[in-house]
Amino acid sequence: MPQYFDISLKSILKELPQKFMKLLTGFETAKFLDVQFPSVTYRQPDLLLELPDDSLFHVEMQAQNDRNMECREFEYLYLIYCDFRKPVHQLVLYVGDEKLDMKNEIILPGLHFTFRIIDIRDIDCHELLESDDPADNILAILCKTDDADRTVRVIIAKLSELPIEERRNYIIKLITLARLRKGLTESVKREVEKMPVTVDMSTDIFYLEGMEKGLIEGERKGLFEGIEGMLELKFGLAGLELMNMVRTMNSIDKLEEFKNLIKKAVSTDELKEFLGNSV
Fold it and tell me: From 37, 223, 266, 270, which residue has the greatest number of CB atoms within 10 Å?
């Protein structure tokens, strides 16, 4: 499922803000690895880092609870380890507003798989606010604070010292992250409007909306391609004939649900019934 914060949050973390990376990995430096894993569909981890001790650090970011999170992480461990043959540390960074409720282990005969889950609200914002890295600063908006409005003011004050274009880019990312917390978007906008050289909020809101639409459209295109490959692989021409109906589906959630159904279905009749109820 696409999340509107993905582009901003991933781009922030790919800058490898030192203090935040130290909190997550124990290291201030790392090397970003841009990888995709071919399968029936492509798997691309949110963030894969090579740490100074030659181990790998895999981060997935979640804004919602996922009841299949442990299975997703297990699949990523298999893909990453078998490709690199190095020790892999795994972390799910939860940035949602609801209470964290995800499993972090699989226990089977002969297997005990586990990974870390961190709720970003358990990280104290003060260390990030003290950083000289604006990527650290804006991540503080999602962390633990006793005074959210004050945290916003400190972040804006830090960003106001940046060159105009750099300031604008970070403020857009800040607004995007603020939408993960109820009520914070308006607080950010109020503080931005007080800046000596302000950002054109009307223009930037359109920019954000366009960015979100582009992200969703890209996700739909990727799902269409993955579904088409799965249908051809499992049902041949009979499966491909369903693609005209599949392409009329606009809901990312429904497309994800349909993709999972393909794995379990024993005939195209089951798939046709689902599509008939979804279109």
Answer: 223
Residues 242, 246, 248, 254, CA torsion sign: positive
**CA–CA gap between residue 126 and residue 21 (Å, rounded):** 15
- The residue range of the domain holding 258 is 219-278
Note whether 186 and 143 are same-domain residues: yes
CB 129 within 8 A of CB 154: yes
Question: Contact at 8 Å (CB) between 27 and 278?
Answer: no
171's enclosing H/E stretch is helix 164-178
Identify whether the C-beta of residue 199 lies closer than 8 Å to the C-beta of residue 171: yes
Q: pLDDT, tens digit, for every residue of 80-123?
A: 999 999 999 999 999 999 999 999 999 999 999 999 999 999 99
| Residue 191 in domain | yes
Q: List the strands of the sheet with 31-32, edge to edge.
A: 31-32, 47-50, 56-62, 88-94, 116-119
**How crowded is residue 249: how many other Cβ atoms within 10 Å of its Cβ?**
19
Segment 6-30, tens digit of pLDDT = 677 888 888 889 899 899 999 988 8
194 and 224 together in one domain:
no
Cα separations in angstroms, 211 against 19, 168, 176:
28, 15, 10
Q: Are residues 236 and 273 in the same domain?
A: yes
Short-list 29, 32, 15, CA closest to 173: 15
The dihedral sign for the CA sequence 124, 126, 132, 135: positive
Residue 211 inside a domain? The answer is no
Residues 74 and 117 in one domain: yes
pTM, full prediction: 0.66
